[in-house]
Amino acid sequence: MSDGAERAALQGWSEEELRLRRALCEIGKLCYSRGYIVGADGNLSARLADGTILITPAGAMKGFLEPHHIARIDMAGNAVNAGPRASSEKAIHLVVYQERPEMQAIVHAHPPHAVAMTIAGIDLQQPFIPEIIVTIGGIPTAPFGTPGTQELPESIRAIVKCSDTVIMKNHGSVTMGTNLLDAYKKLDMVEHTAKILWLAHTVGAKLEPLDPDKVKKLLATRAALGVSTVNTLENSCAVTRRTDRP
Ligand SMILES: [Zn+2]
């Protein structure tokens, strides 16, 4: 028996739980190494088949986690065992799992370019990049919510019903997926988009979104590509389009 399997047996983890605990550590390292989180920022979670949630612990550096550091909570946010204390931002995760029962993993990070765009008032919801339009759709921004209060999870509740990604103004991103890699992939794409727009903006370009005809043609390719995810270009939900500046 390997060290990991031996520890899992001792902890009473199932194969599924061990796999997800390891995946949370791996994706935490990736977020940290890519600069999407620093210090003890951010938090990640994954839902087990029994409906309970594995989530990164409060105050930990997500680049240095080990499987036994991960907390486990139920859908009411209560600890399932006497293990580590769950992230203080667990309510963000609970809102997403409540509103999107098909989603199994969530990554909340502080990607610098994407957050900077919300501070600068540049709206990532606008359609600029074909790959994003076809896969994610728009990238909406939620109004500012005070971290550590119920205001923050409620600020994203309506938006996550129709978007797999959201940027919380002046704060960070929430991306969700059918597994952890899927949630991470969307974070990667959000930050990459923000970086491209930031570069265009810093060289003085006026950020011109693609015109509606081109967007319509791109959205029409989704079905043939097997992409059916809900998105804010086709479903407005609570997303208000900013018009003050591109
Ligand atoms: Zn945060």
Protein described:
This protein has 246 residues and is α+β, with helices and mostly antiparallel strands. It has a single domain (3-225), classed as L-fuculose-1-phosphate Aldolase. The chain contains 9 helices and 7 strands; from the N terminus they run ααβββαβααβαββααα. It has a 7-stranded mixed β-sheet with strand order 3-2-1-4-7-6-5, with helices on both faces. Strand 1 (43-47) and strand 2 (53-55) form a beta hairpin. Helix 4 (112-120) crosses helix 7. It is globular. The termini are far apart. Zinc ion binds at residues 42, 89, 108, 110, 171-172.
Defining key terms:
7 strands, binds zinc ion, 40% helix, seven-stranded mixed beta sheet, 246 residues, disordered C terminus
Catalogue the unreliable spans. 242-246
The assigned CATH architecture is 3-Layer(aba) Sandwich
Global Rg: 18 Å
Shape: globular
Average pLDDT, rounded to a whole number, is: 91
Q: How many β-strands, per DSSP?
A: 7
